[in-house]
Amino acid sequence: MIWAGAAFLFGLIAALQLAYWPMNANLEWITFGRLRPLHTNAAIFAFAGNAIFAGIYHSSQRLLKTRMFSDVLSKMHFWGWQLIILAAAITLPLGYTQSKEYAELEWPIDIAITVVWVIFAVNFFGTIRQRREKHMYVAIWFYIATIITVAVLHIVNSIEIPVGMLQSYPVYAGIQDALVQWWYGHNAVAFFLTTPFLGLMYYYVPKAANRPVYSYRLSIVHFWSLVFIYIWAGPHHLLYTSLPEWAQTLGMIFSVMLWAPSWGGMINGLLTLKGSWHLLRTEPLIKFFVAALTFYGMSTFEGPLLSIKSVSALGHYTDWIVGHVHAGALGWNGFLSFGMIYYLVPRLWKTELYSKKLLENHFWISLTGVLLYYISMVVAGITQGLMWRAVTPEGQLVYPDFIETVVRIVPLYWVRALGGALFIIGFFMMAYNIYKTIKKAPKAVEQTSYEVQRTGFDEQTQDTHRKLEGMGFTFSVLAFLAIIVGSIIEIYPTLSLHRYVNPANIVEPHTPLEIAGRDIYIREGCYVCHSQQIRPIASEVLRYGKASTVEESMYDRPFQWGSKRTGPDLARLGKKYPNLWHYSHMIDPRAVTPKSIMPSYPWLVEKNTDFLVLRKKLSVMSKLGVPYDSEVVANADIHAQKQAQEIAADLESNGAPKGLAKKEIVALIAYLQSLGQKGKAQ
Amino acid sequence: MKQEGLKFFTDTYLTSLGLLIFFLFFVGVLIWVYRKNSSKIYHRMEQLPLTDGDSL
Q1: Is residue A673 a contact partner of residue A575, using CB atoms and an 8 Å limit?
Q2: Is pLDDT at A682 greater than 50 in this prediction?
Q3: Residue A594: CB partners within 8 Å, gap ≥ 6?
Q4: Is the ipTM of this complex over 0.90?
Q5: pLDDT tens by residue, A537-553
Q6: A246/B33 CB distance under 8 A
Q7: Alpha carbon A2 to chain centroid distance?
Q8: Is the Cα dihedral A404, A405, A406, A408 positive or negative?
Q9: Fewer CB within 10 Å, N- or C-terminus of chain A?
């Protein structure tokens, strides 16, 4: 719950920063670009993660009628995970990031995550092995799918080569990296925020309502179709990009197919409460479950809708997506976790909840908060999308200045911040309620042990699926196969990148100084607000220039296509403005774009570029297949310094201060000026 | 071999066949799951969380 509070607060600060830029406070550690990954990681892995683990540990022991396999492993899992969160909370504000959404953590932490996850898996599967109930209830299947798939996703997406203690380059480049990343990114939603929570739902909703799930049959169909289909849906994040067309279409079709199993789950959950609606009065915590399921249904309706190409053309890069994820995260994951906490704490501490009235208030205040948040963001997103694409009958953009579309939605950012604040107020009510509940619990609780019979092992059955459920290992393998088929078919062909590259359009790799600048760009989280992918849509080509191609990012490790446009796209930024423009833009964005909401980056003029590490960086790049001359790799720092001198001299002759050559701002300018300028045939 | 395999992505007969196979498989699973005589089994399964031994 502490992490939840942290995640929500970071979110609120980030929301306020967008509404009111001075909230960035000119502090590098809390600018939006660095705070936003901290917020998403805290929400997904710290808050949702710990809620999942608590629920899994509690419900599995009861469903499998045995104690967890090993208390030592449970403890290692708990403390290991908290340490990882702590490591994330330290490294992300310091700017150590891979810039891959929801996979920002650097390689030592990635390894730690793998180790802790394996500990969790051993503990969980050990428990399944020693279970006293032969039949595995549907919740257990969801947990199994979660553990297996998250392991596969994390390992495949995190294959990278270190260049320092806290920096690495992925082995994938350009479209490969984008595809692997969104295969991971979308399935982080699927197997971290959906399947485990569905498992929890299948346990806690029947428990709270004291009646069985509406249709067990539906849950079987629901489980298998969800596990099989979800894994394919990732490429819908990359519609209209330079990802090959077939992969985009696959992603879209499978996303639309997801409608069925998702709604199967929602209907199953809601109908479980059929005939129990009176409980809403006596057991108000059920309200949280009802709201959670409704939000699940709404977000899973909206998700496939947004993945349809023509809808995506309007919604992608806008705040609509931000609204969509928050309806899922706050409404579905948040409310389900709150319901679970309200259910669990009184029972674990053997007492009654301190105040049902407070719970009611928490519910209504938070619900208002989520609705304000969601509605404001959908309105902002659609407004933005429509303004970006508005073209006059003469074929001119109606709003050629990007800032016009930003200024228009700033009031909605305030509404969003208000919604977030209400959600947090509700959360603090819960924290207080839970604190008081635990406080009034009897201090000395008698340890009771339960005699549990082994059940189901000697039954004779002819039913195949039932036998399958009785075989933990075989079941897990089948679940693994279900997710791996889609993954391989999608990712494998893209790994042979050269097939998609037109030899006539081959580009030059970045110079050493540009690489240094690119790493600064990544560190500051510029990709959080700026995309580098011009879609082949008339209005975008008018606004930014020629649509992006596969070749342009073929040496980019990691890819930097971005997924949100708070500011304009940068794919064709190079040579558009003089160096001095970029300098002023970083020091005081409002000097060049009045009303800009971008933070200032004064430390870029103070910090020195690390030139020496460039040799190492380039040698890793060249090992990965970027065609650098061996002389350039060996003298990377000298090349970089030479280019830096030229840019600094140009800046100075136009009125900037002297002696900037060593400063980070120069490296960043070099990178920005190279964007869209590398093509030989352009 | 790999290149040959990749060519199938443009073969519409093969992809349609794949679609048909998956669809029929899905329908088969549906029919099988919703068989009438399996009610007893599912009834016991769905009771699992409610009969997990204690009130916690």
Answers
A1: yes
A2: no
A3: A403
A4: no
A5: 999 999 999 999 999 99
A6: no
A7: 20
A8: positive
A9: C
Q: Which residues pair with A507 in a beta bridge?
A: A679
What pLDDT is attached to residue B18?
Answer: 78
Residues contacting A105, CB < 8 A, separation 6+: A41, A84, A87, A88, A91, A92, A97, A98, A113
pLDDT at A620 (0 to 100): 95
Min CA distance, A382 vs chain B (Å)?
A: 35
What own/partner pairs with CB < 8 Å and gap ≥ 24 does B12-21 have? none
pLDDT exceeds 90 at position A446: no
Stretch A481-495: mean pLDDT, rounded?
A: 83
Contact criterion met (CB < 8 Å) for B6 and A493: yes
C-beta of residue A508 within 8 angstroms of C-beta of residue A678: yes
Show the tokens assigned to A560.
Answer: 């930097």
CB A643 within 8 A of CB A513: yes
CA distance A482 to A472: 15
User: Closest to B48 (Cβ–Cβ): which among A135, A210, A217?
Assistant: A135
Single out the residue of A174, A196, A157, A244 nearest to residue A45, CA to CA. Answer: A196
Please name the amino acid found at residue A637: D
Which pLDDT score, from 0 to 100, does residue A448 have?
62
Residues with Cβ within 8 Å of A647's Cβ and at least 6 positions away in sequence, in order, are A579, A660, A661, A666, A669, A670
pLDDT band per the 50, 70, 90 thresholds, residue B55: very low
A507 phi and psi, to 5 degrees? -110, 165
Which residue in A40, A146, A101, A117 sits closest to A109, CA to CA?
A: A117
Residue whose pair of structure tokens reads 């604190």 in the numeric block: A435
8-state DSSP, A65: T
**Predicted local confidence at residue B17, as pLDDT:** 84
Say if residue B54's pLDDT is above 60.
Answer: no
Contacts of B50 in chain A (CB under 8 A): 206-207, 210-212
Q: Are A420 and A368 in contact (CB under 8 A)?
A: no
**SS3 category, A397:** strand
| A450 pLDDT more than 70 | no
| pLDDT tens digits along B7-52 | 656 667 777 887 888 889 888 888 888 887 778 888 888 888 887 6
| Closest Cα in chain A, distance from residue B17 (Å) | 16
Between CA A508 and CA A355 the distance in angstroms is 66
Q: And the tokens for A564?
A: 């949100």
Q: Can you tell me the distance from the alpha carbon of A532 to that of A573, in angstroms, rounded to the nearest whole number?
A: 9
pLDDT of residue B56: 44
Size of interface A-B (CB pairs under 8 A): 66
Contact call for A212 and B32, based on CB within 8 A: no
| Of the partner residues A212, A220, A347, the one whose CB lies closest to the CB of residue B33 | A220
**Encoding tokens for residue A134?**
């032969």
Q: Given CB atoms, is A203 within the 8 Å cutoff of chain B? A: yes
E strand or H helix at A347: helix A335-348
CA end-to-end span of chain A, whole Å?
Answer: 54
Q: Is the pLDDT higher at A491 or at A384?
A: A384
CB A420 within 8 A of CB A8: yes
How many other C-beta atoms lie within 10 A of the C-beta of residue A650?
Answer: 16
- Angle of CA points A553, A557, A562, to nearest 5°: 65
Main-chain dihedrals φ then ψ at residue A606, nearest 5 degrees: -95, -35
Most B-contacting residue of A57, A58, A59, A62 (CB-CB within 10 A), to test interface: A62
| pTM attached to this predicted model | 0.91
What's the mean per-residue pLDDT of chain A?
91
Phi/psi at A619 (5° precision): -70, -35
What does the alpha-carbon distance between residue A583 and residue A229 come to, in Å, rounded to a whole number?
A: 48
Whether B34 sits inside 8 A of A213 (CB atoms) is no
Tell me, what's the pLDDT at B38?
Answer: 75
Q: Is the pLDDT of residue A100 over 90?
A: yes
Q: What is the pLDDT of residue A277?
A: 87
